[in-house]
Specification:
Distance between the termini: 14 Å
Number of domains: 2
Shape: elongated
Strand order of the largest sheet: 1-6
Strand content: 25-35%
Order of helices and strands: EHEHEHEEHEH
Number of strands: 6
Largest sheet: 2 strands, antiparallel
Structural class: alpha+beta
Helix content: 10-25%
Number of helices: 5
C-alpha cells in the first residue's frame, strides 16, 4: 500500500534528494503553533466501557473492570458484599508516553494538501522500508532506544482532521 506525505516544496526536495525530514513527538504536536497541524488530543485516548448490568462482589475485587476499580477501593473487610451496576458508562482517560510520530496518509487529496498549505506531495511506495530507515537513524543518533525493534509497528487511526488522515 502506498502512502503520501504533504509538504512544502523545499521540504519535499530535502526529503527526496537528501533524506532529510523533520520528525516530531506526540507532545510537540499537542502544542504545535500551526493550527492546521496542532492536535491537542495527540497521544490521548478516552476508553469507554459500557455496562448494561453487572453484579460484582467485594471479595472478587481483582477481577472487577478497570474503570470500576478506579472508582471504588476494596473494603478492608471482604464479606462477599454484592454491588449491582446498571446502565453504566465508564470513561477512562489515557495519556500515552511521548514518542516520535511521522504522519502520512493513504489517501491522496489535493484539497487536504491545500488545507495544510502544502504545495508538494511525496509518494512513499514502501512504507515499511521508509519506517525502518527512520527508526535506524533515530537509534544511531541516540534518540531512540536500540532494544526497540528496528521494524516499527505502525498504528493507524483516524485523526481529528475532517479528511480522516492516517497517523503512524
Amino acid at each position: 500500500m502506498a502512502f503520501f506525505k504533504y509538504l512544502k516544496k523545499n521540504y519535499a526536495e530535502e526529503l527526496v534528494l537528501y533524506g532529510r525530514l523533520r520528525i516530531g513527538t506526540i507532545y510537540e504536536y499537542r502544542n504545535y503553533e500551526d493550527s492546521e497541524r496542532r492536535d491537542i488530543t495527540e497521544g490521548t485516548k478516552n476508553e469507554r466501557t459500557k455496562i448494561d448490568e453487572v453484579t460484582l462482589y467485594d471479595n472478587d475485587y481483582e477481577n472487577w473492570p478497570r474503570g470500576l476499580k478506579s472508582l471504588f477501593l476494596p473494603p478492608e473487610d471482604l464479606t462477599k458484599t454484592s454491588y449491582v451496576f446498571k446502565n453504566l458508562t465508564i470513561l477512562n482517560p489515557m495519556n500515552f508516553p511521548d514518542a516520535y510520530i511521522y504522519c502520512v496518509t493513504s489517501n491522496f487529496s489535493r484539497k487536504v494538501m491545500e488545507d495544510f498549505n502544502c504545495d508538494a506531495c511525496v509518494y512513499i511506495k514502501d512504507i515499511q522500508a521508509f519506517c525502518d530507515i527512520i527508526s535506524k537513524k533515530l537509534v544511531k543518533l541516540g534518540l531512540a532506544h536500540p532494544s526497540y525493534p528496528s521494524n516499527p509497528t505502525m498504528h493507524f487511526r483516524n485523526c481529528l482532521y475532517i479528511g480522516k488522515d492516517c497517523g503512524m
